[in-house]
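User: My collaborator and I are trying to settle a disagreement about how two of our proteins should look. Neither of us wants to argue from intuition anymore, so we agreed to look at predicted structures for both before our next call. Could you fold the first one, then the second, and keep them clearly separated?

Assistant: That sounds like a sensible way to settle it. I'll keep them separate. The first protein:
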Amino acid sequence: MGGVRTNGLNQTDHNVLLSLVEWVEGEEAPGVIVGTDDKGQERKHCLWPTSKSVWDGTKWDCIKA
């Protein structure tokens, strides 16, 4: 995925707003958006309906639906 990538906080896959801007302006839909909770744990939110988020016991990952 292209887009704005200046540091960890401005990566499009970690920032919903930047992902939407890239989608609208660059016509590139995000394949995954990574969310972080208040404890710093990350979860991949995958492109639905072609894939889904699955917990494997240690981390969240995307698998084909």
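The second protein, kept apart from the first:
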Amino acid sequence: MIEQATVSAFHTDGSATVLRDDGLLVDVSAEAVSAGAWRALRPGQRVTLRRDGGGSVVAVVRPA
């Protein structure tokens, strides 16, 4: 499953909080951020969230 979102905050531990297009804030793990090959994210940046079958965010990637 793929969703579009906007970065709300990038945390010092490498994790992030993003705002999905439906208005829901989602916490994203540092592992999911690094899976998208990011070194850092900036607030306001558009991203795509990739989820596994269980609904967990597994990667934050560049928007399609």
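Some points you might bring to the call about the second protein. The chain has one domain: 2-61. The CA atoms of residues 2 and 50 lie 5 Å apart.
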